Amino acid sequence: xxxxxxxxxxxxxxxxxxxxxxxxxxxxxxxxxxxxxxxxxxxxxxxxxxxxxxxxxxxxxxxxxxxxxxxxxxxxxxxxxxxxxxxxxxxxxxxxxxxxxxxxxxxxxxxxxxxxxxxxxxxxxxxxxxxxxxxxxxxxxxxxxxxxxxxxxxxxxxxxxxxxxxxxxxxxxxxxxxxxxxxxxxxxxxxxxxxxxxxxxxxxxxxxxxxxxxxxxxxxxxxxxxxxxxxxxxxxxxxxxxxxxxxxxxxxxxxxxxxxxxxxxxxxxxxxxxxxxxxxxxxxxxxxxxxxxxxxxxxxxxxxx
Length: 305
Hints:
Layout: E1 6-12, E2 15-16, H1 26-29, H2 31-35, E3 38-39, H3 41-48, E4 54-61, H4 70-79, E5 85-91, H5 99-112, E6 117-121, H6 142-153, E7 157-160, H7 167-175, E8 182-184, H8 197-214, E9 218-222, H9 225-228, H10 239-250, E10 255-257, H11 263-266, H12 276-283, H13 287-301
Parallel strand pairs: 1-4, 4-5, 5-6, 6-7, 7-8, 8-9, 9-10
Antiparallel strand pairs: 2-3
Helix pairs in contact: 7-8, 10-12
């Protein structure tokens, strides 16, 4: 297979709700983990054979474990030996009183582990709300700000998972903290094709423009397309245009592909559908754009090089 087929998957999960060490809870992970209590790296690697790419490196992203994220990191390291997993984005509630200690532990253990923690995620989506999100303005709380500033000290990226109506507030916050690399998850989670379609679309456009303008250290994952619109896979539908808007706004050097497996899998997206739409959009932009989105942007952000 040709070198161009090798890709970095910037966002995927493994979980095991039966193993207490994982911290994974079926009720938190929702439908997928209730029906599929275990998703292993082996199943993932098998699934990826159904795509038109060859994944040579993948970033494990936290699965909302119970506790402070430290246990899940240890669990992933145990299960990731000799696999495609090359880095971890760990769970952290940046408001935790002992956040400095937690982040220090992530980084210190990365020294001796073959599998480093390169970033953290704290999901912020409110209305529609995700687990552990107690209100819509976490990003503006002094406790969150304190934890966020420590990310620079430990050279950890922040995975920003939020709704479009929260983006202007997030952009204002990020303008004050330009020393932390940030990656917006899943195109910014716009939920389109509903009765709020026009409103969400305009919030999303304004919000993504504001986030892009914060600076070149703000990135975006082109992923979970199936969440965006019921007709997401239609090459003549809405999604190619939205992907082009993001590529124009951020540039391919700040955009990265991700499978979001097995979440997308359990939302009905087979491996064969994970890349054709993006391939179509990128083909018009040429080899440099393809190389950035499928390989180099994620490698740079998560320190794989």
